Amino acid sequence: MKIALLATDGFEESELTEPKKALEAAGAEVDVLSDHPGEIQGYRHHEPGQRVKVDHTWDEIHIEEYSGLVLPGGSRNAAKAREFPRVRQIIWEMERARKPIAAICHGPWELISAEVVTGRKMTSAPKIQDDVRRAGGQWEDAEVVVDQNLVTSRGPEDLPAFNREMIALLEKEPVAQER
Fold first, then answer.
1. Global pTM value
2. Alpha helices of 6-127 — where are they, by DSSP H?
3. What pLDDT was estimated at residue 177?
4. Which positions are annotated as active-site residues?
């Protein structure tokens, strides 16, 4: 299983590094994809954190190579990433193919911009719950929400549940029903 982890400068450190570790421990190959090569800067809330190596830019990849998608949070990261047409395209194509998508904290902003939220049960950072609702999502205040091929969580405190449900979803057979 090969997973695409989309992020750019400003990602919340634990929301990228912890899912990546959990996926690799479960036997997945994880590619960090970004808007630029080299490294991206993480944050621990408002303080700079570690830098993470970028494996490929999102313009270099083919969606069909990946079994699933992870969108870490960090308001800077999600606000910047959602502006890129290629990010919206990747999310939309993954959703259309019914591949697992896992988004945490502010990551659902990217789902909103890709227009894949309508009618979906989900959670997010509480600060963006109104955005989720306005986009047609059914927001819940829960540590993790699974709706078909979508796993969402509120933030770093929910990482154990997020990682557990993300891996469980990736290990299932692909969802066949159309949206």
1. 0.94
2. 13-25, 75-81, 85-96, 108-113
3. 42
4. 106
